[in-house]
Amino acid sequence: MSDDSLIASTYVQLLIEYVTQSELALEQLLSAEQLALLEASRVGGSQSRMSRTVFSAMLRQVQQQVQHPALGLELAKQISAAHLGVLGYLILACSSLGEALVRMDRYGRLVDDAIDMHIRQVEGQIELSWPPLLTAADAVFVELGVASIVQFARNITGQQESMTAVGFAHRHEGSLQPYRQFFGCVPSFGQPNTFLRFPLAHLSLPLRQPDAVLLDILETQANQALALLPRTDVFLQEVRRLLI
Question: Which one of 51, 117, 152, 213 is least enclosed by Cβ atoms within 10 Å?
Fold first, then answer.
């Protein structure tokens, strides 16, 4: 995985909403520079993007301030289609979880332009895996991403299914109870890759709002958005950060 990637501004809103709902003040948790980047992301609308490194630093800083050991899981609980932009609504229109997974794999770059997800079948299980990020500072970001997939799948199927196994590349110290409660199993840490495993049968779970016509329309939009993703975003984001 590359040193950095760009995250959709809609996804970044998860952090803002969590802080707001918790009746905390962003000004007390983040620096002036970080607040300026958040504002620029908000003003930029759905087409705006933020450096993954910058967002990871914000997540880690807020976690340290609020002293929540499983902050990523808490943020993921509020995930909705709006936080994933076009991809979120495209997934909503699919007919089954398996169909949704195919779209997530195909259009995941709309949320994270350097996502590197691998899908395989292992002894009657489906495994989603990702190579480890480069620094331990990304731990909250990784946990948020994995938990968001699980939570969104539960939202769109209406089923509170447990995972068979969950693994993270980073280390963890402290209670595993929040992870057990969220995933339905105890995750393992310090693994070669980050992964999720669930029964193959889950792919046939029907979604709550299938719409074949809307699916075709949104897939066209997603293909157009994917083709328009800038190739120099990381450089432009750094220039923008320095200017702010």
Answer: 213
CA distance 219 to 215: 6
Burial of 110 (C-beta count, 10 Å sphere; 0-12/13-18/19+): buried
3-state secondary structure of 3: coil
pTM attached to this predicted model: 0.90
Pairing of strands 6-8, 125-130: unpaired
Cα dist from 205 to 154, 215, 241, whole Å? 10, 17, 43
3-state secondary structure 147-200: HHHHHHHHHHHCCCCCCCEEECCCCCCCCCHHHHHHHCCCCECCCCCEEEEEEH
DSSP for 116-153 reads --EEEEETTEEEEEEPPPSSGGGHHHHHHHHHHHHHHH
**Please, which residues have CB within 8 angstroms of residue 86's CB and are 6 or more apart in sequence?**
46, 107, 110, 218, 221, 222, 225
User: CA–CA separation, 40 vs 33, rounded Å?
Assistant: 11
pLDDT, tens digit (0-9, with 9 covering 90-100), for 7-42: 999 999 999 999 988 888 888 899 999 999 888 887
Three-state SS at 206: strand
Q: Is 112 helix (H, G, I), strand (E, B) or coil?
A: strand
What is d(CA 96, CA 153) in angstroms, rounded to the nearest whole number? 10
Of 116-120, 175-179, 225-229, 240-244, the one with minimum mean pLDDT is 240-244
